[in-house]
Design goal:
Blueprint lengths: L1 H36 L5 H32 L8 E3 L1 H11 L1 H6 L3 E6 L6 E3 L1 H18 L5 E9 L10 E10 L21 H4 L10 H12 L2 E7 L3 E13 L2
Parallel strand pairs: 2-4
Antiparallel strand pairs: 1-3, 4-5, 5-7, 6-7
Helix pairs in contact: 1-2, 2-7, 3-5, 5-7
Length: 249
């Protein structure tokens, strides 16, 4: 039944969340115990253990943030707050947010937004959630030394809302990276779905498995859509259409 299916989904979600939380906690506990026992005797061991604790604490922080974001979006009380929003200002904020990881991996982050997107009518928090999570994936999976681009345009064909004078906005997040295998593209918006090791590779590329689920729920609340275009070993383009959020000139 529908109720049984919902209960099973909830049970699976709790089980997955518990597993994802236990993994970094166990690593922190093991590193702390080792540090207490032998870490003080060798500076190199001490530094390695401290780095391990810091890395897993960061993962816990990321997972907690994503769980809270997803929980708020799935709540029956969740609602859009439509207000005047400057998408170019959100872009500038995200450029600063991702400056450090981009510098570390020698990635150039470029934004090219239509000036008309400085005045839109949408939910700033939800749009920021969408772009932040898409950029997080793009930067994480982009090749070292490559370019990640965010393009924003206005078009009558980009999800314009019937019966209004407002046009739609199209946002594209483009990376030159490893890409997503075709067989996995239908599942990437599932909660806790992780691509295979050929894509995730190093631990630095492993996320929480919640980012694209957050994107899906945020866009559902906004009445928007997302399309995935990806070629293995070449890169990925995520195209978001937001309806009726830009005033027609």
């Amino acid at each position: 039944t529908e109720q049984a299916t919902a209960m099973q989904l909830k049970t699976d979600f709790v089980a997955n969340a518990s597993h994802e939380l236990r993994t970094p906690l166990a690593s922190i506990k093991a590193a702390a115990e080792t540090l207490h026992e032998v870490g003080g005797e060798d500076p190199q061991i001490r530094e390695r253990l401290i780095a391990m604790i810091a890395s897993n604490a960061e993962r816990l922080e990321e997972l907690s943030r994503d769980l809270l974001d997803l929980s708020s979006l799935e709540s029956p009380e969740a609602a859009c707050v439509i207000e005047r929003v400057d998408l170019t200002a959100i872009a500038e904020d995200l450029h600063e947010l991702f400056a450090e990881p981009c510098t570390t991996r020698q990635i150039t982050l470029e934004f090219d937004l239509d000036d008309r997107l400085s005045t839109t009518w949408t939910d700033a928090r939800l749009v920021r959630l969408v772009l932040r999570n898409l950029l997080d994936n793009a930067v994480k999976f982009a090749d070292t030394g490559s370019v990640v681009r965010v393009r924003g345009s206005v078009s009558p064909g980009a999800g314009d809302a019937p019966g209004t004078t407002r046009l739609g906005a199209t946002l594209e997040v483009i990376d030159q990276g490893i890409g997503i295998p075709i067989a996995q593209q239908q599942r990437i918006f599932e909660r806790f779905f992780q691509a295979d090791e050929a894509r995730t590779g190093s631990p630095a590329r492993r996320g929480t498995g919640l980012g694209l689920a957050i994107v899906k729920h945020a866009l559902r609340a906004l009445g928007g859509t997302i399309e995935v275009e990806s070629v293995w070993q070449q890169g990925t383009t995520m195209t978001v259409d937001l309806p009726g959020c830009v005033e027609a000139q």
